[in-house]
Amino acid sequence: MESTTVKLYLLNYSDVKTYLTTLLFVIGNMLFPQCFHLITQGGIIWLPIYFFTLIGAYKYGWKVGLFTAVLSPIINSLLFGMPMLVALPAILLKSVLLAIAAGWAAQHFGRISIPVLASVVLAYQIVGTLGEWIYNGNFYSAIQDFRIGIPGMCLQVFGGCLFIRYLMRK
Question: Does the domain at residues 4-169 carry the CATH identifier 2.40.10?
C-alpha cells in the first residue's frame, strides 16, 4: 500500500463534535472486543481494545484519541468485566500512549502509510511494555503482547490503515 495524504481533524474540547466522535469510537471499542472474546484468548491475541483508539487519534486528533483511550477500557471493564481490573492499569497506559503516538504521527507526517502505523504501534507497545514491567515487576507478563499479540498488532497496522483510508472517502 502506498502512502496517502490524509485530511486530518484536530477537534477541540469545546467542540461538540469531539464528544460525538469519541462516543462512536468508544462504542466501537466496546463492540469490537466482544466479537474477539468469542474466540479463546481472542482479546490477548487480537488486542481489539486498541483498534478504534488508533483510528480516532490518527484521524481526529489526540484529544479524541485520549478520551477514547481512557473511556473504552474503563467502560468495558465495568460493563463486561474485560479487561479484568488487574490488567486495567497496563491497558490504560498502552491506550494513552497509543493515542499520543497516533495523534503525533498523524500531525507530523500528514499521511497514512503502513510504515507510519507500524511505527506508532511499535512505539506504544515498546514503551507500554516497559511501563507494564516496571508496574508489575514481571517481565514475562509484560511482554505478553509481543509473545501472543502479534496478530493484533498486525490488525491495528493493516486494518487501521484500511479503515482510515475508508474514512477519508466519506
Answer: no
The residue type at 83:
P
- Distance, CA of 36 to CA of 50 (rounded, Å): 12
Please confirm whether the linkage preceding 83 is cis (ω < 30° from 0): yes
Q: Each residue of 48-101: pLDDT tens digit?
A: 999 999 999 999 999 999 999 999 999 999 999 999 999 999 999 999 999 999
Evaluated on CA atoms 116, 51, 18, 16, the torsion sign reads: positive
Measured in degrees and rounded to the nearest 5, phi and psi for residue 82 equal -130, 125
Listed by start position, the domains of the chain span 4-169
Q: What global pTM score does this model have?
A: 0.93
Contact 44, 144 (CB under 8 A): yes
